[in-house]
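Reviewer 2 asked us to include a model.

Predict the structure of this chain.
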Amino acid sequence: MEWGMKNRLAQLIQKDGRALFLPIDHGYFQGPTTRLEEPGKTVAPLMPYADAIMLTRGVLRSCIDPTNTKPIILRVSGGVSVIGEDLSNEGIITSVKEAIRLNASAVSLSIFVGHKYERESLLNLARLVNECEEYGIPVMAVTAVGKELEKREARYLALSSRIAAELGARIVKTYYCKEGFEKVVRGCPVPVVIAGGPKVDSVVEVFEWVYDALQKGAIGVNLGRNIWQHDHPVAMIRALRALIHENYTPKEAYAEFERIRQTG
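Predicted model (structure tokens):
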């Protein structure tokens, strides 16, 4: 592996082998999202506790202070909307040269295994990997499920994650499943981070499934809505950071959450 690739991966995955990525790229297909109407204001108090931030070039340029030193994971797929015909019909919307100009540490795109535009999304990944490898830029593949929640089971997630790794993704973002998640990780020869999915009511529930995913081999998370849509987002991300990087149990993470929530 070239030094540049190793260096960029080291910026994303910390020395303990763990990672906490904060995505705020939701607007690329669903517009102004609740509590993400002003992305810069939402993310500013959270960035000190994230290992990297995932977003589009438009939000990066217009909302993020250029003195920021946190690694950037640049979302480079899109071209569809939540009111369009099919979310799987994505294309590459940002060039690798643009990613270099924006000093991105990695790029990300979605793949849609089992969807109408499966082939196109997988070829998008392959082409992106081909170009990014020339410049030492890691590609993170996002195994998208969308509204078909029943597909969030181990067999499907393992299939999608393995295909992403086979096509050259350096990191795979996938969903957590309670049954068989260790098989998803074992079958994927590159690091796996888990997606957050829908906002949940229970803080403890988030801590429990993040903890379980870590025990089963995930290196960390790529959580957005469960952090910045929470009434206490700073307490949430700090507690998750303790769970990921300091090996807190869910009970200890919840106690940390409550301490920060109450003291500010």
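The radius of gyration is 17 Å. The chain has one domain: 3-230. We have added this to the supplementary material.
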